[in-house]
């Protein structure tokens, strides 16, 4: 806190104390459409760029949003921001974000991966730390021409986030991608979003 400033805690209720303290933290920095494009290009071109975690939202949820304010201090080796899908719906549509809030980890080489776990700062931070440099990537229909012509074969997990066995497999799939990524590419396709692709 700035020197000389003081804050009074006005309750003895633990949950309310935590809420008051979190409300003093700065909100995640807002990423604009132009900034998002630039950071994605930078990640694609740079071997040393810090990965980005972006929180895509379309309305505020005060209690959950306060918890997310802890993320920058938990992820000091990464960039963290938020993107308003109401102000730029075309960007969210292009990323196939139809359910908000959504969290996407943008990685070096220009790939990205959706987060499907519990939406708490601890779980999200763990996902970022474990997967920021994993070669696993989220695939969309537009990726498939290059998937078919890539010099390395692809192993693709066609899954649903509402399928418990699928979600249990996902962490193991990520581990496998780290072990043999020099020989094989790994990708995931969300069949709740890309139903036609999954039915082919």
TrEMBL record:
Domain Thioredoxin: 94-200
Organism: Adineta steineri
GO biological process: IRE1-mediated unfolded protein response
Species classification: Eukaryota, Metazoa, Spiralia, Gnathifera, Rotifera
Domain of life: Eukaryota
Regions crossing the membrane: none
Protein name stated in the entry: Thioredoxin domain-containing protein
Molecular-function annotations in GO: misfolded protein binding; oxidoreductase activity, acting on a sulfur group of donors, disulfide as acceptor; protein-disulfide reductase activity
A single GO cellular-component term on record: endoplasmic reticulum lumen
InterPro entries in the cross-refs: ER_disulfide_reductase, Thioredoxin-like_sf, Thioredoxin_CS, Thioredoxin_domain
Gene3D superfamilies tied to this protein: Glutaredoxin
